[in-house]
Amino acid sequence: MQAIVNYPKVRIGKYSIDIFPYWIGLLLVGIAFGLVGAFIVLTQGLQVTGLSNKVPWALWISIDLSSIALGGSAFVFGVIVHLLRIKRFEVVGRLAILLGFLGYSTAGMVLLFDLGKPFRFWHPIVYWQPHSLLWEITMCVVLYLSVLMAEMLPIVLEHPAFSNHPWLTRFPVLEKLMKPVRRFSHWLHGFSPVLAVIGLTLSLLHQASLGATYSVLSGRGLWFNQSAPVQFVLSAMGGGVALLFILSIIVFRITRPGLVKDGVFYDLARISGAVTLLLTYLRVWDFAVTNYYSFDREIALQTQVLNTIAPYSLTFWLGQAILPAIAGAMLLAAKRIRSFRVLLVVATVPVLNAILMRWNYNFSGLIASISYDPFTPSVILNSYTPTWIEFAVGGMVICYWLLMFSLAARYLPFHATDHPKHS
Amino acid sequence: MQNRDENTKDTEQSSVSRRDVLKIAGGLAATLGLTQFISIKSLASSLEAGSVNPDGVKWGMLIDINKCIGCNYCTYACQAVNNLADDMLYNVVTTETTQSGTEFFLSRPCMQCAEAPCVHVCPVEATYYREDGIVIMDYDRCIGCRYCQVACPYDARVFNWREPIEKSDLIPTFGVQEVPNRQRGVVEKCHFCSHRIDDGLQRGLEPGVHPQATPACVVACPTGARVFGDLNSPTSPISKARDDARVTLRLREELSTEPRVYYVPPDSAYKPPFQTGEE
User: Distance between CA A285 and CA A281 in Å, rounded?
Assistant: First the structure.
């Protein structure tokens, strides 16, 4: 069964124009521009970036961390749909898996450029070093991307093009090829509870380890923090589900009205709101423990130095404490508010909070690093300015994300539910 | 009865069959098995890492800050031997101050930590401990993720942002290139001139005593501020120097990295200003 799809159109006078092709064209231009930058990085190496020995991780790592975090709804809804079997989330769960896949493939892509030796990206899979958090993250991301692909395949194959395209009858070879693929996808679909468990395990492992990547490094003051792994998991859940809320309103409520009941949207908002409140509570206590209860000279110096060059404390209080607290409470009260316009605006806060937290975390330890001299250790202020190539490559992967999302939002069969298992 | 079947399809009654339970259990078992495998493996590699034979030869360095005149010869010799560009220094000499404001020169090679953060974080085991405690790199394995750079509390690591230089300006004044160039895109570091140590030991020389078997920075030092040798041998030059020193310190000791580079602090740091002359 095909659902009715309303595509957004722009009305100029009496003409109404489908902006979709122009939007896709714009994204393709962005990707083409990024490919120029990507080519320069691959041929000339990382000297073309603004990175240095003092600030070796910067814009690309922040994009990488953020896109993994914002794919966090996939594991949450993998569990809700396939383990808890809450049927009303099934359609939204498909969007969550898509977002997970896009987030992780984007992260993989941008990391490839960030490696000094991009063509050795497979080394962690062969040369194991289980002490390293980065090794664990690489393995988890590789395995989880495979899980997400296995979860995506049955959804993609449900598209009518794979079952009744005229070519399938004209070229019998294609039909023959499709048969084992379909059987494989049915088999995979039967395994979705297992995939959900594996996905949950892998996600919790690496989402936490992304925080631990920084927080195990005792030499960097602000980074050395016991609660960072939990904060990273919670912000990935809160931000990921908030993003899912925003996009599911676009994909379902606006373009496929009636497919998902409003109650489901409210539930999404409430999940995100509850997690965001929990995160904010933890974040404020973490601030108190770091800066007040265990007063540390180096951390105080670092914060002071960071505040001289950037609104570091302000971004904490505004972006990670006050606004998320308000937004979390409002999202939790979604059923009372009932205005999707308001909720859409409010839901951007957990998303931006997840990005901001990762951005601040990455730069706080690098921009203000602690010197090693024995008697009068101080905080050294390092600087980093991204080059156009970093923006181009970063923009390219974001355009890739938007392109794949736009195509999927238009063509992916979110509605078909005639699984062989249930019929 | 027929109606019930149709109804269950749409209601949210969760009906988990035995088969599903088995599947989930299987998934859990597989994941658990994986974690077990990882922990066994990590245990194995932690045994490999450095802690093998703690009483064996462990190379270390002692730098007497009172003797250092800030001439940078150690840096130059290092640049010549490793063919390093001017912005890719393994060894750095900086001017620092004591609490009382007296300036001194601090020269800093790699600390060759016994609990090196860079070894712990490397995702591919490209950085590892040698039997003799030296923290060394496999440049063919490094993927250039720079986590080690981020992890090092001493800024001792440099990344090859560019292709290696043809020939350092300091060759041949301060020595000749003794190790091959590293490729663009890998991190590199001081290795205590491990090639000299290995060659020297094969020829029956004692590192720290014979210049051919001793790191270039130690040999180049005009004031003898740097002493090298086996920390576990009581007769090695470094053990004697440590015995002679009134007090030694290591950089950022509070991080428990257990550096194998010791410093004799400047006298001014341990003498109140009003107390002059020898005691």
Answer: 6
- Show the tokens assigned to A334: 């979604």
CA distance B265 to B67: 10
Please state, as a whole number, how many other Cβ atoms lie within 10 Å of the Cβ of residue B135: 25
Give the whole-angstrom CA distance, residue B203 versus residue B197: 10
Whether A117 sits inside 8 A of B38 (CB atoms) is no
Spatial CB neighbours of B53, under 8 Å, sequence gap ≥ 6: B131
Cβ atoms of A78 and A198 closer than 8 Å = no
CB contact under 8 A, A83 and B24: yes
Q: Is A418 on the interface with B (CB under 8 A)?
A: no
Chain B residues touching residue A369 (CB < 8 angstroms): 155
Number of residues in chain A: 423
DSSP alpha helix (H) spans, A52-89: 59-70, 73-78
Sort out which chain B residues have CB atoms less than 8 A from A138's CB and list them. 123
Q: Decide: A389 and A40 in contact? Cβ < 8 Å.
A: yes
Q: Look-up: residue for tokens 């040698």? A: B130
**Contact status of A210 with chain B (Cβ, < 8 Å):** no
**Do A415 and A1 meet the contact criterion of CB atoms below 8 Å apart?**
yes
Whether B276 shows a pLDDT value over 80: the answer reads no
Q: What residues in B contact A135, CB-CB < 8 Å? A: 123-124
Minimum-distance CB partner of A131 among B46, B157, B186: B46
Among the listed residues B137, B121, B114, B115, the one whose alpha carbon sits nearest the alpha carbon of residue B56: B114
Q: Which residues of B85-104 are buried (b: 16+ CB within 10 A; e: fewer)?
A: eeebbbbbbeebbbeeeeeb
State the Cα–Cα distance between residues B169 and B102, nearest whole angstrom: 33
Q: Which of B9, B16, B150 shows the shortest C-beta gap to A85? A: B16
Q: With the C-alpha atoms ordered A179, A180, A186, A192, is the resulting torsion angle positive or negative?
A: negative
User: For each successive 10 residues of chain A (423 residues), what is the average pLDDT?
Assistant: 68 83 94 96 93 94 95 93 89 93 94 93 92 92 92 85 81 84 87 89 92 90 89 95 95 86 93 96 90 80 88 90 96 92 95 94 90 90 94 96 93 64 39
Give the residue on A whose Cα is nearest the Cα of B256: A218
Give the Å distances, CA to CA, from A260 to A77, A92, A267, A422, B261: 15, 8, 12, 19, 65
Residue among B39, B41, B251 minimizing CB distance to A372: B251
* Inter-chain contacts counted by CB atoms under 8 A, chains A and B: 180
Query: What angle is formed at CA B195 by the lines to CA B193 and CA B196, rounded to 5 degrees?
Result: 70
Tell me the two tokens of residue A210.
């992304």
CB B126 within 8 A of CB B234: no
What confidence tens digit (pLDDT) does each residue in A55-75 have? 999 999 999 999 999 999 999
Chain-chain contact of A116 with B144 (C-beta, under 8 angstroms): yes
Mutate to test the interface with B, among A134, A206, A214, A418 (most CBs of B within 10 A): A134
Tokens representing B35 are 């974690």
List strand residue ranges (DSSP E) for A262-413, in order.
368-370, 379-381
